[in-house]
DNA sequence: CAATCTAGCTAGCCTGTCTAGTGACCACGA
DNA sequence: TCGTGGTCACTAGACAGGCTAGCTAGATTG
């Protein structure tokens, strides 16, 4: 069990040491990551949109909620895909009736993307309940540990992606 | 700010209420998710493998560390892709010298997949340092809050994906 | 006003998934 | 022991979603 068969890979493990008491923590973290991915997958197949399109829609709606305009370029940047791919994405979402393109009031090169009422409804259906439960879970964290949990997540985020810029108004 | 312009979307928000004190927690959670995704992306482009292939490799290596054999079917199930896609994936990884197929000792239909020393080295290079830093972060969580953090993550995982089966030995 | 930059678009390519169908092999009941 | 049905892995071919290259319209700057 502890010294695996197969090729002569190093005998000093670079995988976590199981004996460490904080490993349970990292294990839970991994479980969460996996659950998150599976949720996205379910959501995307349920809505008949691919994962990128769902994230785009989520982004658009989240920014709508704060009154910020979303341009095609903004979407490309957020999703980390090319503007060309974004054009295709917007074609898909427009055709499926999830978003609308409108002229930018100030810059006539630019487009503002807005979600249709139908898209709002669809996302809402998925998220309202989930958000409620997530809030409940957040509330159930003992008051004195809240900061610790937040710090932990923040540090982990910094660790995984040092130059992350937190542009999301999503709350 | 609170009542956005644009189409006549519902005026009762289904996005989080910003006033809630625990929202910071959920916000940190979202930041972590994003950081995680970006890390995967970087890793995959850095190793010249797509995200699925990296996850496959990680899975293989993690199971190797516990002495469990990984079959093609096991990979397909874990990655949630078809066996056909898995066959192609294994072709790619075999061709690039990351894995080897060996006959299953008991079932002659089946194949055991093992990572090459080269793959071990490559993954190790990426992960050792990161794991060390993650462990440090885990250690820096106040002792009395560790359980709270773990519980929080577990509950969130259950919330996002109720039927998750925790098959990973990855620690 | 000319030169240059930027936003978004189309065309065409490449990669990675999928479904359909195949052959080899295992397990079990008659 | 010998079908019969289920399972494992594979190939072929379709399709989706990303990319780069190259374009036009409009903004910006010397």
From TrEMBL, chains A, B:
InterPro entries: HTH_MarR-typ, MarR/SlyA-like, WH-like_DNA-bd_sf, WH_DNA-bd_sf. PROSITE patterns: HTH_MARR_2 (PS50995). SUPFAM superfamilies: Winged helix' DNA-binding domain. Transmembrane segments: none annotated. Pfam families: MarR_2. Residues 22-158 form the HTH marR-type domain. It comes from the Bacteria. This is MarR family winged helix-turn-helix transcriptional regulator. It comes from Citricoccus alkalitolerans. The lineage of its organism: Bacteria, Bacillati, Actinomycetota, Actinomycetes, Micrococcales.
